[in-house]
Records
---
Amino acid sequence: MPTVNDILDSMDYGPAPEAAGEVTAWLTARAPFGHFIDGSFTAPADTFATDNPATGEALAQVSQGSAQDVALAVKAARKAAPKWAGLAGHERAKYLYAIARHLQKRARFLAVLEVLDNGKPIRETRDIDVPLAIRHFYHHAGWAELLTDEFPDHTPHGVCGQIIPWNFPLLMLAWKIAPALAAGNTMVLKPAEYTPLTALAFAEICAEVGLPKGVVNIVTGDGATGAALVASDVDKIAFTGSTDVGRTIRRATAGTPKALTLELGGKSPFIVFPDADLDAAVEGVVDAIWFNQGEVCCAGSRILVSEAIARDFTDRLRARLGKLRVGDPLDKCTDLGAIVHPTQLTRIRDLVSAGEAAGATLIQPEMQLPAKGCYFAPGLLVGAEPANPASAEEIFGPVATVTTFRTPAEAVQLANNTRYGLSASIWSENITLALDIAAQVKAGVVWVNCTNQFDAAAGFGGMRESGFGREGGREGMAAYLRAPEVKSKPEASAPDFKAMPSPATLASSGIDRTPKLYIGGKQVRPDSGHSYTITAKGRELGLAPLGSRKDIRNAVEAAHKAGAWGKQTGHNRAQVLYYIAENLAARQGEFEARLKEAGHDASEVAATVARAFYYAAWADKFDGAVKSTQSAKITLAMHEPWGVMGVACPDASPLLGFASLVLPAIAMGNRVVAVPAQSMPLLATDLYQVFDTSDLPGGVVNIVTGPRDDLAKTLAQHDDVAAMWYCGDAQGREMVKGESAGNLKAIWAFENRDWRDAQGRELLNRATQIKTIWVPYGE
Ligand code: NAD
């Protein structure tokens, strides 16, 4: 007779499948599906199958959206837009509440439908995807209610084109649709081709709650449909998906006024220090990389573990791996379900093999995978060097690399050794160390002693090539609203660079009194050795150095080295800005004379002094927030500087325009490479002494004079420039957006404005990005 110990050892779970009958009946009754346009479903056309990855069987036929379908949907959304935007926030809120209630009523149905279409386990759709989607609609119903108080004078964008991936189909839909509705936008959403079904069920809910027709439109299809939506007559594109497609969309929207947010890929570090609660950290890994089969943009896919505990931790992970259950996603005891599609399975296999070929050892438990369907056993690639393709590429499957580090500094260096910056998870019982690391990692979301925490009230989104923009919370709402219109003001005409004297002319002019560039706190000659003539009202005012690509590169390098500026206290930065204001005021007469000589309004000087005081005042007051998310978790929203910013200044208002952009940027801790007014850069070059005598550390402000658009192009292309502001004409604005696609930097490109009114929170918001830090508390 077996002993109790024998029974405990051999005991296993019995099957506990969730019934799918209601969903299959719905599919039988409803499929094949057309698109949901203007409040009703179109006739199915050009259909393709969406499969159940757990079995390989087709679930339903859906329609491949053509450019005409997209155009029809956009037209319906356009027609519905004025009325929807014109409703009182309270009225819109009622629809969002109704949607949330209906989602709640159909929660089990949606959880099962998502399992069938995506392959993810029912435990996750039931306990995470669907409840979070519901929470998103409730939260944003609240925003609709509060909009006029909290975002006075803001307006919706109009029609939003929204494109989502397959890994959290309903949840990504909620992240897109809830804030867009609350803000008063109408929309056309394209779900991913592998997982369109919950979006179609959601369309039914929109009809059920009586949402005015045309407000939400769903067009199914693949990347071609997505590309058609990007090219269509929408006012904003909100995209979640891969970095490569994000880059294509950045280029495609460059020549348009379309607003853009990009939530892209990641290769997020999961850092375990020796004093971590190792059993908790093991469960953290389960949630980080084996949750949703690792098909998670913010998956902790690079485990960085202190050498001191690496063996112990890996052993514990190995033991835990052996206990994971892979199989029927409808079974409530399943930990990992099916991979979404055979194409994705091939990609995972290829990258894991490449990781092994590059020297890592694959640990995978012995397990029997289901004979049918798309499955991959969870694993670890131990000993993966940073250069290993498995360490660098997003596998988007249930396999993390394991790499060791010796010191906290090395952990940070390894964590940041990626082109992405979506999230990070840090494990240490020493909260001082954990928060110090949280401040240093380049990631939009940081989880301390937890991972993959989400809430509608907290911003989610990336840095670097993980995209720009945030979803959730106040910052997510702001992304669906237009700030009050700023009146544009025509620019002065561009100078004639042919007027540049040849080097011979310069040499013959005797002593070189030409102002220099200002790089790293020093005055330096331009690499070209050339200058150009500054004229005003037909009179020559002097020469300005002709900066080039090389000078921009040097300036970016100098700015990069001045990183300590971002770590100074706001108070210290304020002191420097006060000095700048005082020193400029002391030389006010001199600057006024310069401006008058160039035919500009001399009162710009007093306004610039005032602006320096203004941003000095802000330097220690642009507070972040503590968000109301889950219980027993502190969720911080910290304003972080971008790092190195490129600023191409307006040609008009050569002093005030420059100061209005550079001062808020440095007040927030950024270092700036600025291209001053190209036709009158001499006011900016006169500022060198002001900076030098104001304790501004070298490299915080760098000034390269010359042809704005050539220099802006180099700045836009530069990988080490994290964000760029460009003031100029439509052609230039298009150019910087297109050229920035390489590292997907955030671009603010705008027309010249009246710089007298141009100050305030909008600039501070644009000078910072939000890092969300989650810290749980309680034993
Ligand atoms: P994908 O980029 O291939 O597809 C995403 C969506 O874009 C799909 O709907 C697809 O049809 C559409 N699309 C494809 N080509 C397009 C084009 N040229 N123009 C317009 N639309 C196009 O990504 P995927 O494989 O579906 O999803 C996985 C990726 O999504 C991963 O890189 C993951 O990290 C990322 N992701 C990011 C987040 C986030 O919030 N940052 C969340 C989830 C997923």
Note: The longest strand covers residues 633-641.
---
Amino acid sequence: MSKPQLLIFDTTLRDGEQSPGAAMTREEKLRIARQLERMRVDVIEAGFAAASPGDFEAIRAIAETIKDATVCSLARANENDVRRAGEAIRPAARGRIHTFIATSPIHMEKKLRMKPDDVVAAAVQAVKWAREYTDDVEFSAEDAVRSEFSFLCRIFDAVIKAGATTINVPDTVGYSIPSEWGARMRALIENVPDADKVIWSTHCHNDLGLAVANSLAAVMNGARQVECTINGLGERAGNAALEEVVMAVKTRKDLFPVETRIDTTQILAASRLVSQITGYVVQPNKAIVGANAFAHESGIHQDGVLKHRETYEIMRAEDVGWHANRISLGKLSGRNAFKTKLAELGIQLDSEEALNAAFARFKELADKKREIFDEDLHAIVSDEMVTPEVEHYKLVSSRFHSETGEAPSAELTLAVGGVEKRAQATGSGPVDACFRAIEAVVGSGAELLLYSVNAITTGTDAQGEVTVRLAKDGRIVNGQGADTDIIVASAKAYLNALNKLHAGAFRLNPQL
Ligand code: KIV
Ligand code: ZN
């Protein structure tokens, strides 16, 4: 690497998870963490250890698994939070504690009800506790955007002396604009003593749609770490989108004084995985990862691209993982070809049993669908990555009937803890009938918060990927299912969500 490195700190599993309904199970977090590692992010913020035992366990599992990225836990500036974070990251090859406290007058007075002197003392103490566990300690001044400049300099000076190695400057409420944010970063670096001994970081929210622009302005002015999330997921309007930050720095290397070590060809797979797990669909016109990001509609543009790609394209679709719906495998492909293709796509199944099950699903799909694309394979393995012991409810068979002028009906056979049960129901549509039939057997009483269908590839024989979000007793889970029959995909997604509720594989939304 010839230029200084810009560190990419991914907080999809922490700030991203603070998006309403985006709570993830431990296994889901692990899958995303593995993809982030494959993409070569530098730091994975795996969660907020003190938020819940589930969060703690997920961070620990990620710390045990991930070898090529630093694994980080968030902690408020109090002893319990810092020690929980320290315990959670203990198994990590490289572990970081990220402690924070609010520094703006409004937050200190109205939320913390603390005097500025006490806020500085709490921050210093938190950093010292954190240093008992690791020498990689990050400090964030929450709501830095509305904090007094002189107070920021004072608290940063104090935490650097206490042992903080990364100083993060967050625009917690997404209030800044690029010129102001860049100037603030530069002024901090120029005024805080020993600024050259730490890494300066930026963390921007997207309330005004400026998170990426503000982050890049900070980079132009000395920030060497950007905190971001896949698809820009995050609290309220979200965080800076990792894929946009990384591709801006790469595409405009003529302007940026830094480079990242991200393997950009893994970006699309990461985007799809996060979207599928959280149920947050990516808008078609989203930069880099939206379905239309590299599509040319107007005749003039198509003509230009055919003659010379760079007339209308500033990036290569392949560089971010688009394979232009490349046909992957066919009906006659064998188990070995299937396994090799999964490895090529960076998909790792945990056991031979999971591989066999995924291969059986592939054969079943190849019978229904002429061409199997990479996207189909991602969906197949997602289905098979449901841990078998969690599958208390399973779809055995289904029959749906829909006729003009008649109420659609669903007849289902489910296996419940291995025992087959049948149910029949009508509904306002076939999906409604299907969910009613499942509830007639299961009687979960869960509330349906979200139902979304996404065609995985083009064509009427495409698989539909369904996400169902259920809530029960304050617990929220997302279930996924894929099939060429979208009613079957819906049933699978609903059962997947019920299985998570049943197994207790859920967590409460974190409360910061
Ligand atoms: O937005 C924010 O201020 C945060 C901090 C905890 C870094 O997420
Ligand atoms: Zn944030």
Note: The first strand starts at residue 7 and ends at 10.
